[in-house]
Every structure is written in structure tokens, then in C-alpha cells.
Amino acid sequence: MDEPPYYYLLTTYISYLILIVFGHVRDFFGKRFREEHYRHLQAMDGYAPLNSDFDNFYVRRLKMRINDCFSRPVTGVPGRYITLVDRKSDDHNLHFQLTGTTTETLNMSSYNYLGFAQSEGPCADAVEEAVKKYGMTTASPRGDAGTSDLHVEVEDLIAKFVGKPAAMVFSMGFGTNATAFPALVGKGCLIISDELNHASIRFGARLSGAMIEMFKHNDVKDLERLLREVISQGQPRTHRPWKKILVVLEGLYSMEGSMCNLPSIVALKRKYKFNLFVDEAHSVGALGPKGRGVCDYFGVDTSEVDILMGTLTKSFGANGGYIAGDKAIIEKLRTTNAGTIFGESPTPPVLAQISSALRCITGEISPGQGEERLQRLAFNSRYLRLGLKRLGFIVYGHDDSPIIPLLLYNPAKMPAFSHEMLKRKISVVVVGYPATPLVSSRARFCVSAAHTKDDLDRLLSACDEIGSVLQLKFSSGVAGGAEPLPEGVTLEMEKEWKRQEKLDGQGQMMVQPPRWRLNEVLKRGVQDVKMPLR
Questions:
Q1: Cα–Cα–Cα angle for 122, 126, 132, nearest 5°?
Q2: Are 449 and 374 in contact (CB under 8 A)?
Q3: Residue 507 — very low, low, confident or very high, per pLDDT cuts 50/70/90?
Q4: Nearest to 333 by CA among 120, 463, 180, 190
Q5: Are strands 426-427 and 97-107 parallel, antiparallel or unpaired?
Q6: 53 to 57, 60, 237: CA distances (angstroms)
Q7: What angle do CA 375, 378, 380 make, to 5 degrees?
Q8: Residue 498: CB partners within 8 Å, gap ≥ 6?
Q9: CB 278 within 8 A of CB 193
Q10: Is 77 helix (H, G, I), strand (E, B) or coil?
Q11: pLDDT per residue over 192-216, tens digit each?
Q12: CB–CB of 494/486 below 8 Å?
């Protein structure tokens, strides 16, 4: 993983320090001379404030400065393009007023991986027919009168698609994890979680009452060290054996763009006999030659993974989530999962969208279209990632990941980057603390099969201009962006070839910072993405 020069990290810390100091100074004087603005943070008539001063400080004094970059209202379909509803603020982002106009922008912010967020086509037609036949809602939880033939059909399709005996669907992706863990584990059990797992996993794990341990992100050695320790020591105080050990990880991490090292995790599973839960919220539909997720990508048999979870919001253009596993596990979840017992049932239009999208991917509907979407997504992901690396940006994640984080670091560069992109009619997501580490603010591009090469060229051109102005091109080259290897030189031969070609005075291999010209990036990108990215 590449890192910027130390002075970038130093100036980032100093920037946050200045913001915090100025925030406290403003609060000090504001509480004395503008008391009406702080009443909601103070006790009144014997009632404690719901918002504490300390917890509210970050939102009030840091996020509010760049609040116009977040939660921009949109209208229409979030496809290749997305239409923003224009707004303005006269009180420093405290309140917004709509201007009555809209702006059509290139959509690099939605999780529309396979481009199924459409208002026309076979999926939209299926949804329309479902509304005519079933109406808008079942008006009941699944356990009462909320299970229709559509639910049974969709659950069967999902189980077959991901390669599991059974599956069940939920009406909310976050709620899938939040309610699944309390039904799977409890007191006397242990959850071992990747440190960068999604908030829904953390929330569900806490609700379960099980003990929770974390291992370093994607670090198999650290996971094995932790497994040896917890298995040998057992439960705290009593040292009894754990009832269950559940290792939880994600197939594709939404902030990092990195994939889990599934083959190595499966090897550990065989050795230490723990249960494995894989969250495929971002990987199902987006990874693998058949779009069936991280198991498909690595060629791992799905029987090696005890529970596969996924969301239906992203690759399938719908909403909700699913759990897939053995029939015994799914039947237990149906009877003990609070999301099924008390939660609303997925609606017929949503189920029709899921069903038609799955049939498109597998070729039952519009043969060839699903395969084409998967290939376009794979090309777009590799093409954009390679282009950004060659321009000199620090980019995180796996080569085939459709999530591409571009590191900004300094907090002031988040609004600057977002505003400059918006001027060029491109919508992007900027992310900072606490969703990322303090010094790792970033812009996150979400690639879609709906994007064309011209769209990505337009984005690369905008990044090239903005990156030069904001001084974002500080890649050292250790994480990629180099020229392809000469013909006849394989990846295994690369180190020896480098030694022969170019050494520094101490006999060490030189790494050249990539600073390609935009025209060269665009000219060579198509042919170079077909080879291993360097």
C-alpha cells in the first residue's frame, strides 16, 4: 500500500488541530454572547439535553463546514447520469433552500454496479406487472400473512445463484446483519471480526451478547495468532471452551475497495474448525466470471463458507438483503430472527426487480445481456483504476474492485475536490473521519456497467486537472502505475529483470513515481487492462 510524503500527513494533522482549536474558541465566545444558538446543548427546566456538547462538537464545528458536499438531493433514476436538485445556503450550511433548478451529472457515486437502476427494460416491465398483480405491499410480516409466491421464488433463485441449499430475504440490508447475529450466536460464543467490517456487522454483533475480538484488516497471520490465543484460553474467567467461534468478514470492503483473502481464510477454517460468515453486500453481482461473488472470483466452493450474506440494493437495483446457508440454519433464522418476526415483508415490486435482475445475469431473460454487463463492469473497473494510478494518484483496493478510493488526506481537499467535480458536472462521494481514519480522507468512485469508456475518459481528464491544482499526485509507484512488462517477461521474472535493468547506487531496485500524460493514459489504457495491472 502506498503512502504520501510525511509532510502531507503532518499538514493533515495540523489542519484538524486548527479546526478543533478554532471550533473551541468559537464555542467559548458563542456560549457567552449568542446563548440562543446553544440552548439545545444545555439542560432546561430539569431536562438533560439529548445532544451533548462534546458529541455534537465534530458535527457542529467540522462537518458543518463542508455539509454541502453530503446528502445532495436527487431526482430521477440513479443510472449512468444522475440529476441533482440544486440548493443554496445563506447560513453557512446550517439550512438549505432549493433554487428550483436541476443539474444533470455523470454518476460516479451510486452502487449501481450492473446498471440495473433503470426505468425501462425487462426489469422495469416485470416490476410494472408485479404491481398490477400483487399491489404495492403485503401489509404484514413474513411470519403472518406476508409470504407470497414471489418471496418463495426469489429465495429459491438467490439460493441457486450463490450456490447454497436455502436462502431468506429481508427488507433492509442493514437490518439483515443487525438481526441475524443475535439469532446465530449468544452468550458463551465468540465473534472474530475484521477491523474494517461494516457498521451493520458491529451493531448486530453487539446485540448478540457474544464476546467480540477483532483482527487487523485482511491480515491472515494476525487472525491465526488470535485464533490460537482464544482457542487455547477459552472463555474469560472460566476458561471453558467457546460454544461457537464465528469469523466474520466482507467479500469487498466498501471504503477500501479491497477483497478478503478468502482462500487463506478457508485454509485456516479447515485447520481451526471455526464457522465462517461472509458479507457479500458489495461483491455479489459485481465479482466473479458469473457475478456470483467472492467465492466465484477465487474459485472457492461455497460449501466452505457457512453463511453468505448479501444486499440486493447494489448490483440488482432493488433493496433489502439475504442470508444463504444450509436449510437447518435458514429454518432456525426464520423462527428466531427478529427481522422476520417483527419486520415488514419485502414488497412485490422489489421482489420482481430482484427476480428479473437475477434472471438477466444468468441468461434466462435477454440471453447475453448479463454476461455483457459483467464484462463491461470488469473492464471499467480495471481501466479507471489503472488510469488513476498512472496519473500519479494514490488509489486503494484490488484491481478488479468496482469501488475505487482516491486518497485526498487533507480535510480541506474534500470540499475542494467535490466542488471542482460538480463544476465539471460529475457527482462523486467524499468520505472522511469517522468513516475513515483521521488522515485518510478520500473520494470514492463507484464504477458501473452503465458507464462507457468516454465517461471514464471524462472523469480521468477531470481528475488530472483537479489533481494538479490540489496537489494530489503523490504516488511513489510502489502500488502500481508502471509500464507493462516487456514481451517474454512474466510476473515471476519481474524482480530479476528489474535488477538487470535498473539499480541505484546501493544495488537497490528503483521505483519510478508514475506521472503519465493524460493522452498516453487514454491511448494505452484499453490494451493494458487486458494484462496484469502494474
A1: 150
A2: yes
A3: very low
A4: 180
A5: parallel
A6: 6, 9, 38
A7: 105
A8: 509
A9: no
A10: coil
A11: 999 999 999 999 999 999 999 999 9
A12: no
